[in-house]
Amino acid sequence: MQYIKVTPDYAQHVALIELNRPKALNALNLELMGEVRDALKALDEEEAVRVIILTGNAKAFAAGADIKQMADKTPIDMLKIDQFSTWDQIKKTKKPLIAAVSGFALGGGCELAMTCDMIVASETAKFGQPEIKIGVMPGAGGTQRLTKAVGKAKAMEMVLTGSFISADEAKHYGLVNKVVPVEMFMHEALVLAKSIASMSPIAAQLAKEAVNRSFETHLEEGLFFERKNFYMAFASEDQKEGMHAFIEKRAPDYKGK
C-alpha cells in the first residue's frame, strides 16, 4: 500500500486504515481510493476484525478529490475511468465502519466520511462540499447523503455556496456522533469501535444492513427487512450465547458464529 496504512488489532477485533498523503492533505486520487477499497474488502473477510476505523491525520481527514487527475478530462474519459465503482464497493462494506475526522473533510473527503456508518470528529473538523467553487458539483454522494443527514435547506446552502460547517454544527445537524478535543478524537473512535466489537459481529452486520435499508425504502418494506434479519439472528450461536449469558447473569463470549 502506497497511500494508506492498515493496522489491525486482532486482540481488540478492530482495524485502522489511515489515509497517508499528508503533503496533499490526503487528497483522494484514484490510487488511494483503490487501496481503501481493497483494504476494506480484505478486512471484511478477516474474521478477527469486527469493526474498522477510517482516518486521516490531525490536519486533514481528506481535503477533497485530486483535482489534477480530473481537470482536463472529458465526459467519456470520466465514464471510462468509472471512479465511482470504487465508491460503490466501499459502500458495500459489511462490518461497522467508523470515520475518525480531524481537520478538513471537504468534497470527496466529506463524502468518504459520510459513506462510513458513524463519525467521531475533533473540534477542528470542518465539513463541506465546495465543488461548486470549481465549476462542478458533488458526485460521490454529497447531494444525497448530506441532505439525508442535515436536511434539505442546510444541504442546499452548503452545496450551492461551497460553505463549510464546523464540528459542533455537524453534531447539531446530526452528521457526526461525537465532538472531542483534537488530541482525543482517535481515542474516542477506538472506544466506540471496541464497544461495538464486544457485541455479536453477526448481529452487528444484520443490524447495520437494516439501519441502512431505512434510507433506501419506505416504512413497510423496511420493517419487513428488519424482521427478516431479526429472525436470521436466531440461526447464530451468538444469539444463543447472548441470551443464555443474560439469563445466567454473566458476560457473553461471542465467537461470530
Q: How would you explain this protein's 3D organization?
A:
- This protein is α/β, with parallel strands linked by helices and 257 residues long.
- The longest helix is centred in the first third of the chain and has 15 residues, at 30-44.
- The chain has helices at residues 30-44, 75-81, 84-91, 108-115, 142-150, 152-161, 167-172, 185-197, 201-213, 219-233, 237-247; strands at 4-9, 14-19, 51-55, 60-62, 97-101, 104-106, 118-122, 126-128, 164-166, 178-180.
- The mean pLDDT is 93.
- The chain has 11 helices and 10 strands.
- The strands form 2 sheets. The chain has a 6-stranded mixed β-sheet with strand order 1-2-3-5-7-10, with helices on both faces. Strands 4-6-8-9 form a 4-stranded mixed β-sheet.
- The radius of gyration is 19 Å and the shape is globular.
- Helix 1 runs parallel beside helix 3 (84-91), helix 5 (142-150) packs across helix 6 and helix 9 (201-213) packs antiparallel against helix 10.
- It is 45% helix and 16% strand.
- The chain has 2 domains: 4-197, 2-enoyl-CoA Hydratase, Chain A, domain 1 (Alpha-Beta Complex), CATH 3.90.226.10; 201-247, Orthogonal Bundle (Lyase 2-enoyl-coa Hydratase, Chain  A, domain 2).
